C-alpha cells in the first residue's frame, strides 16, 4: 500500500493522499491528490514524479545521470544538496512507519480503514514532533 504526502520545512505532514495499491504509479497518485501549495512555493520531488507539475510552483528534482556519460561537478553538488534535504523527509517516513501496522502487510479490507490507520500514524508523528521538535529542514 502506498500514500503520497506533502511535508513542510518543519517536518510536519501537510497533506496525505488516499491509500492506493502498491502497483499504482506515484505520478498518478499525485495527480489525483489536490495540492494545497500556494503560488511561488517550491516542491522537492523524487524521480518517480518526473513529469508531475503544478502551476506556479518551482519543482526541485535531482539531475539524472545520462546514459554513457557522467554528471558534471556542479550537477553532483546540486544532487548532494537535494539528497541532504531528502534524508530528512525519509526520517519522517520512518517515523510514521514505526507503527508496524503501516509497515507490514495489512489484511484490513474494509473501505476507509487503511486510510484511517495511516492518518492515526501521521497524527502520532505530529505528536512526537510537537513534544520534541526536530531541526527544520534547510
Specify the structural class. Answer: mainly alpha
Q: Unreliable stretches, pLDDT < 50, 5 or more residues? A: none
Backbone shape: globular
Which percent bin holds the helix content?
A: 25-40%
Instruction: Write down the overall mean pLDDT.
Output: 87
Order of strands, widest sheet: 1-2
Query: Strand fraction band?
Result: 5-15%
Largest sheet: 2 strands, antiparallel
- Structural domain count: 1
Distance between the termini: 30 Å
Instruction: Give the SSE order as H and E letters.
Output: EEHEEHHH
What is the count of β-strands? 4
- Individual helix count: 4
* Estimated radius of gyration: 16 Å
Short description:
The chain has helices at 26-32, 73-96, 100-103, 113-131, and strands at residues 5-7, 13-16, 42-44, 58-60. The protein is mostly helical. A two-stranded antiparallel sheet has the order 1-2. The protein has a two-stranded parallel sheet with strand order 3-4.
Give the key terms.
138 residues; single chain; two-stranded antiparallel ribbon; two-stranded parallel ribbon; mainly alpha
What would you note in describing this structure?
By secondary structure, the protein is mainly alpha-helical. It has one domain. Helices cover 39% and strands 9% of the residues. The protein is built from four helices and four strands. β1 (5-7) and β2 form a beta hairpin. The longest helix is centred in the middle third of the chain and has 24 residues, at 73-96. The two termini are 30 Å apart. 5% of the residues are buried.
Amino acid at each position: 500500500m502506498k500514500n503520497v504526502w506533502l511535508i513542510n520545512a518543519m517536518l510536519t505532514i501537510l497533506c496525505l493522499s488516499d491509500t492506493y495499491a502498491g502497483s499504482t504509479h506515484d505520478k498518478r497518485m499525485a495527480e489525483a491528490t489536490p495540492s494545497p501549495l500556494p503560488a511561488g512555493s517550491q516542491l522537492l520531488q523524487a524521480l518517480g514524479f518526473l513529469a508531475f507539475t503544478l502551476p506556479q510552483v518551482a519543482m526541485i528534482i535531482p539531475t539524472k545521470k545520462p546514459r554513457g556519460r557522467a554528471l558534471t561537478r556542479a550537477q553532483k553538488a546540486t544532487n548532494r544538496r537535494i539528497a541532504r534535504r531528502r534524508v530528512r523527509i525519509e526520517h519522517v517516513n520512518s517515523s510514521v512507519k514505526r507503527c508496524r501496522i503501516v509497515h507490514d502487510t495489512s489484511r484490513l479490507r474494509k473501505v476507509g480503514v487503511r486510510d484511517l490507520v495511516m492518518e492515526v500514524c501521521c497524527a502520532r508523528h505530529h505528536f512526537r514532533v510537537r513534544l520534541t521538535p526536530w531541526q527544520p529542514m534547510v
